[in-house]
Structures are given as structure tokens and as C-alpha cells.
């Protein structure tokens, strides 16, 4: 773990190839709700976050397509059992490929309570939470931009599914949760709304 002078955690450079083909990952992708007690590595977290919302190419585009390159999504990591990372809640910064700590402590149980008690959220080594600042997209596309934001969340979610499959990890997309409780836990701004929770763990 490389911590910068401003307290941010610089993540390892992602890999751009693997021994698992995209066809294999698609064919074997499943929603996994049960995980072992094993931890995941910070290197794996780095790879998953890059697949979700990381920067690609020379024009600072993202790994998931976005309507008009408005990029309404923000990504948070609720880390419980990540080797090399203190348990806590972190905000992913795509341009820097780094993490910024929101708060310390173990919060998967609280997130699970907000997600109507779903065990997969509590038992995961880490939970990824996608949030959306709708105005980034609706300011350009009007009310239809809401649909575009939800489409983008789906793109990012599938990237996480396929990246987890290639790493031998399990995940599932969770949409059932109490918005206000998630917002409070992540200390989100008023205009920022949670849209997806994705627990990640060993299988």
C-alpha cells in the first residue's frame, strides 16, 4: 500500500490482460451470495475498482461507457477483510487510481442492515457501493438522463461481475436497500444517491 503525502492510498497499476478470456468470464459469470471467511488482496481490489470506473485510454475516459461522458457515478469501498488495507469506508478516485478514506472501522454489518439484512453484504470481504449524482447527466439530457444513469450503473456492475470472475471471486448486484441509511453511512452529499451495492468475496 502506497500512501501519498495527502493521505490518499495509491493503488497498484491494473493489469490489461489475463489468462481468462472474456468469453470464459461471460460463460461462467454467476451471482454469488455466499462467501468464505477468506480475505481478498488490495491488488484484487485495485483491479476491480479499475474495471468498475477506472480511467482508460489517453482521453481520460472510463472503463464503463457514460452518456455524453458525463460520468454521474461515484464508487465507494466498504472494506472489511482486505489484506493491506485498514477496515473502513473509502471513496475511489478514478483519475488518480487511489482511495480516499471516508471513515475507519468495520461497517459491513451496518450496510447489511441498510440492505434489509442481506447476509451477502455482511459476509463479504468488501462491498462496492455505486452512487449517482444525477444532475451531471440530467443537466444535459433532461429527465431522460435518469435512464442513462441507470444504464451506466448496469455497465459498471457487469464490469465488476466479469472482473471478479476472472479473479476467481464472487459478487452479486444488490438493489434492495434503504437509501437514507446508505446515504448516512457513506456520508453522501445531498445530491448524491446510492444505486447499487456489490459485495465481493472469496468463493
What does this 3D model show about the protein?
The chain has 203 residues and is an alpha+beta fold. Helix content is 34%, strand content 27%. It is built from seven helices and twelve strands. The chain has helices at 22-28, 42-53, 108-114, 119-123, 135-141, 144-167, 179-186; strands at residues 2-3, 9-10, 40-41, 55-56, 61-62, 73-79, 82-83, 88-93, 98-104, 126-133, 169-171, 192-202. The chain is globular and about 45 Å long.
Briefly summarize what is shown.
The chain is α+β, with helices and mostly antiparallel strands. It has a single domain (2-202), classed as NADH Oxidase (3-Layer(aba) Sandwich). The chain contains 7 helices and 12 strands.
Helix and strand arrangement:
Blueprint: E1 2-3, E2 9-10, H1 22-28, E3 40-41, H2 42-53, E4 55-56, E5 61-62, E6 73-79, E7 82-83, E8 88-93, E9 98-104, H3 108-114, H4 119-123, E10 126-133, H5 135-141, H6 144-167, E11 169-171, H7 179-186, E12 192-202
Parallel strand pairs: 3-7
Antiparallel strand pairs: 1-2, 2-9, 4-5, 6-8, 6-10, 8-9, 10-12, 11-12
List its traits.
7 helices; 34% helix; eight-stranded antiparallel beta sheet; NADH Oxidase; globular; alpha+beta; 203 residues; two-stranded parallel ribbon; 12 strands
Amino acid at each position: 500500500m502506497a500512501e501519498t503525502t495527502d493521505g490518499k492510498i495509491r493503488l497498484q497499476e491494473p493489469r490489461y490482460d489475463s489468462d481468462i478470456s472474456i468469453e470464459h468470464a461471460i460463460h461462467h459469470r454467476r451471482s454469488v451470495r455466499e462467501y468464505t471467511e477468506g480475505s481478498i488482496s488490495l491488488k484484487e481490489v485495485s483491479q476491480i475498482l479499475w474495471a468498475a470506473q477506472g480511467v482508460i485510454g489517453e482521453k481520460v475516459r472510463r472503463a464503463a461507457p457514460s452518456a455524453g461522458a458525463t460520468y454521474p457515478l461515484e464508487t465507494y469501498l466498504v472494506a472489511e477483510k482486505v489484506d493491506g488495507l485498514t477496515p473502513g469506508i473509502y471513496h475511489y478516485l478514478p483519475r488518480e487510481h487511489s482511495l480516499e478514506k471516508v471513515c475507519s472501522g468495520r461497517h459491513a454489518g451496518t450496510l447489511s442492515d441498510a440492505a434489509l439484512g442481506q447476509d451477502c453484504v455482511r459476509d463479504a470481504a468488501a462491498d462496492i457501493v455505486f452512487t449517482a449524482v444525477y444532475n451531471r447527466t440530467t443537466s444535459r439530457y433532461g429527465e431522460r438522463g435518469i435512464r442513462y444513469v441507470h444504464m451506466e450503473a448496469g455497465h459498471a456492475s457487469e464490469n465488476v461481475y466479469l472482473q471478479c470472475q476472472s479473479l476467481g471471486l464472487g459478487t452479486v448486484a444488490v438493489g434492495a436497500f434503504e437509501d437514507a441509511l446508505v446515504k448516512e453511512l457513506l456520508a453522501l452529499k445531498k445530491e448524491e444517491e446510492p444505486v447499487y451495492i456489490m459485495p465481493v468475496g472469496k468463493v
